[in-house]
Design brief:
The structure holds two protein chains of two kinds. By secondary structure, chain A is mostly beta strands. Chain A contains no helices and nine strands. Chain A has two domains: 48 residues, no CATH class; 103 residues, Immunoglobulin-like, CATH 2.60.40. A four-stranded mixed sheet of chain A has the order 3-9-6-7, with no helix packed on it. Chain A has a three-stranded antiparallel sheet with strand order 4-5-8, with no helix packed on it. Chain A has a two-stranded antiparallel sheet with strand order 1-2. In chain A, a hairpin with a 3-residue loop joins strand 4 and strand 5. In chain B, strand 25 and strand 26 form a beta hairpin. Chain B folds into two domains: 404 residues, 3-Layer(aba) Sandwich (Alkaline Phosphatase, subunit A), CATH 3.40.720; 98 residues, Immunoglobulin-like (Sandwich). Classes of the chains: A mainly beta, B alpha/beta. Chains A and B meet through strand 6 and strand 9 of A and helix 5, helix 7, helix 8 and helix 13 of B.
């Protein structure tokens, strides 16, 4: 059943701004009903809401000015810090390693992004990298839901040898 | 049939009879007729399968009791399957089902009438945007509300108010990995201003689809969202900029004529009732219950509806049933089901008083394979081996040499005993509970062998079982059998007047077609059965044949052509029909005899569709 046809949105891989949807009501045989005219035809959804266009993944405040001491790992505040704990977060010059346990939910993790900042020996910010959790392809893991995940944020190749300290924070977390 | 529903059904039948068209797109004013439906309150117990309902009934109302949802009068069941990414719709050559749905696919099914893949939200499986019922209702001028104990950006509420490739694209920011899904958009990511990769929080704050927005998830919103909401006329009780949540006192103070309200009571999902009850001094205890939110939502929507002369559409989700089922937390599964049922009572009480409200209570899917086992028994997960007979052809010759006995390692103490049974992660023993049948101190039996209610889980994930559906009010007649979750789009849309009207079933009241003549007895026929069926699925229609003698022939015609002849026995007959896709006008007639007069039924209009 596909009773509503959104003109201008079908095949909407490249969506143009559409002021509203023209709603064609299908009868039981799939043909348009003669009564369609009496149903709502005004705007229902727009393909753009006029919001600022994102230019990339989110930053975390303070990442550039944190200046952790060489060999240490600093922590960045994020919007979901009341939903998880981290353990064993270390930085070995090549990557940031750690484990994160969600404390607010026990259902599957759908999305999780860790943002890491990297700093030179003088505490100057030199760059950043991200790690995204990838849920299982079919959407459900076998076995009991596991809210703990290990993460690794590798130092970008161009920063190798310069990164002496790191910081990290969680920019996104969604549970099923 | 409930008496009030019968009255409403007759009124609707008369309306249909006056039009001669099956899918009658009545203007909304017609749906507001004296005996018609103006409002729909659609309540979802997330993850609430049949066992969750039965167990909550037994726990809190006893074996002979009823939950409020079970008092609604009409009961059916809903198939919930999803489809794979890029699948066509059922019947299409590229249709590819997925038997176990998630909440977003299920929400899209009832909100937009299409099957989609797990993780999709307000789009079909090929990423085409599909308008939702709440959008249609809003566009038609109805008041709209969306209530959830989850984050308001979570799958169920989001399914009515947003369109995203991934349900995880919730906000407050665009995150490529959570928002894009190139495998359904031709291999390339979409432009970042495309609606389908716009964070759900931004969509909700901007599109005004719901007038009343109550729930959790303040962390998904930011200061810009607050400004947008206030600019659109919302009373904003919670401040996304400072992440200050609202509370139940503030909610109670919202005036009925507020019009538009945005109030989130927690940063994430709302808090389970048990924690609030046991920690009255904690901030979480100031969160309203789902019943509190439903009460206020109805109050505000009713006032707005009265002012506009149009109806309202309210969706309410009891989300924590699913959250606790994932955790195999039977105690909270039961308590959250009860809390949800309290919200159902609010809606039901309103509908009984209002007389123009259809109440629907259902679920998106079952969660975790919840089961009630007999007291003293055990499950396969507790056994050293499954039962011996796995050869259905010859049960006297077991294909395994021994039967399953309980394994003391896999099962020792009840998992809700507060001790060893609870802490051993490899313990598969059931959770046990007392019930009201066991006396006023029944909760003291929880976690003991004396509890009458023994509960187990199959897994920590969703299952593919059909879910129950309960309903009250005119239109509930369409929900008393097996339906697909996508059918709810048309059924609810019909009740709201934003989709073509689906005629209600004919009343079984017989039609007398002739005045008694000397020596002949008047007869009368009636025909009843579902008016919304799946194509080529056998459905039984029942014939009442007053005064027709045993063996009397009743002819069934479909669109004027004879399709079946059945014989009357004890004043009744039945006809099993397989109807092709399309509209069917069924009528039964009796030709009479030397002793009886002929009679026929009114036309019963039936729609057969996927």
């Amino acid at each position: 059943m596909k009773p509503l046809v959104a003109a201008g949105t079908a095949g909407a891989a490249s969506l143009a701004l559409v002021a509203g949807l023209w709603l064609a009501v299908s009868g039981s045989d799939g043909s348009p009903s003669a009564d369609a005219a009496s149903l709502p035809t005004g705007p229902v959804v727009n393909t753009s809401l006029g919001l600022p266009t994102p230019t990339g993944d989110p930053e975390l405040p303070g990442i550039r000015g944190l200046a952790p001491a060489s060999g240490t790992v600093g922590r960045l505040a994020g919007p979901f810090d009341d939903r998880f704990v981290t353990r064993g977060v270390t930085f070995d010059g090549r990557a940031l390693h750690g484990s994160l346990t969600v404390t607010s939910d026990v259902s599957e993790i759908l999305a999780l992004q860790v943002l890491a900042g990297f700093y030179d020996a003088d505490g100057r910010f030199v760059g950043q990298a991200r790690w995204d959790f990838r849920p299982p392809e079919e959407g459900h893991e076998e076995g009991h839901p596991d809210e703990s995940v290990d993460f690794v944020v590798e130092v970008p190749a161009k920063l190798r040898g310069r990164a002496a300290a790191a910081s990290y924070g969680v920019t996104n977390l969604v549970n099923e | 049939m409930h008496p009030r529903m019968r009255t409403a059904a007759l009124a609707a039948l008369a309306l249909v009879g006056a039009t001669s068209s099956t899918l009658v797109a009545t203007p909304h004013a017609s749906a507001n007729a004296d005996d018609g439906i103006k409002n729909v309150i659609y309540l979802l117990g997330d993850g609430m399968g049949r066992t969750q309902v039965s167990a909550a009934r037994q726990r809190y109302h006893g074996a002979d009791g009823e939950l409020s949802m079970e008092k609604l009068g009409t009961t059916g069941q809903v198939a919930t399957y999803a489809v794979q990414k890029n699948s066509g719709q059922p019947g299409a050559a590229d249709f590819s089902p997925n038997y176990v749905t998630d909440s977003s696919s299920a929400a899209t099914a009832w909100a937009s009438g299409v099957k989609t893949y797990n993780n999709a939200n307000g789009i079909d499986a090929k990423a085409t945007i599909t308008p939702t019922l709440m959008e249609l209702a809003h566009a038609a001028g109805l008041a709209t509300g969306n209530v959830s104990t989850a984050e308001i950006t979570d799958a169920t509420p989001a399914g009515q108010m947003s369109h995203t490739l991934q349900r995880a694209c919730q906000g407050p920011n665009y995150v490529e990995a959570s928002c894009q899904l190139p495998e359904v958009t031709g291999g390339s990511p979409l432009a970042t201003d495309d609606l389908r990769v716009t964070p759900i929080a931004d969509q909700i704050a901007t599109n005004q689809t719901a007038d009343v927005i109550l729930g959790g998830g303040l962390s998904r919103f930011d200061a810009a969202n607050k400004a947008t909401l206030e600019g659109n006329g919302y009373t904003v009780l919670s401040d996304p900029g400072t992440q200050t949540v609202a509370n139940k006192t503030q909610l109670a103070a919202v005036p009925a004529d507020a019009g538009k309200v945005f109030a989130l009571f927690s940063k994430g999902n709302m808090t389970i009732e048990k924690y609030k009850r046991e920690n009255p001094g904690e901030p979480e205890a100031q969160e309203p219950t789902v019943a509190d939110m439903t009460t206020k939502a109805i109050e505000v929507l009713k006032a707005k509806s009265d002012a506009s002369g149009k109806g309202f559409y309210l969706q309410v989700e009891g989300a924590l049933i699913d959250k606790r089922s994932h955790a195999n937390d039977a105690a909270q599964t039961l308590e959250e089901t009860k809390a949800f049922d309290d919200a159902v009572k609010v809606a039901y009480d309103f509908a009984k008083q209002d007389g123009h409200t259809l109440v629907i209570v259902t679920a998106d899917h079952e969660c975790a394979g919840f089961n009630i086992i007999e007291k003293g028994s055990f499950t396969n997960a507790e056994a050293a081996a499954p039962p011996a007979n796995n050869d259905g052809k010859n049960t006297s010759n077991p294909s395994r040499p021994s039967s399953g006995a309980k394994d003391a390692v896999r099962s020792h103490d009840f998992i809700n005993d507060g001790g060893a049974g609870q802490t051993d992660v490899k313990n598969f023993a059931p959770a046990t509970f007392g019930t009201v049948d066991q006396g006023p101190n029944y909760t003291s039996l929880d976690g003991t062998a004396n509890g009458a209610l023994w509960l187990t889980y199959l897994s920590g994930n969703h299952t593919g079982a059909d879910v129950p559906i309960f309903s009250y009010g005119a239109g509930s007649e369409l929900l008393d059998g097996e339906i697909d979750n996508t059918d709810l789009f048309d059924i609810v849309g019909s009740a709201l007047g934003v989709r073509p009207t689906i005629p209600l079933p004919a009343d079984p009241t017989v039609t007398v077609t002739a005045t008694p003549a000397p020596g002949k007895v008047a007869t009368a026929l009636g025909i009843t059965g579902p008016t919304l069926v799946k194509p080529l699925v056998t459905v039984t229609y029942r014939i009442t044949a007053s005064k027709v003698p045993n063996g009397g022939k009743v002819v069934i015609k479909d669109n004027g052509k004879v399709v079946k002849t059945v014989l009357v026995s004890a004043g009744r007959a039945s006809a099993a029909l397989r109807l092709a896709r399309g509209t069917h006008r069924l009528a039964a007639s009796y030709a009479g005899s030397s002793k009886t007069l002929p009679s026929s039924t009114p036309t019963l209009t039936v729609v057969a569709r996927r």
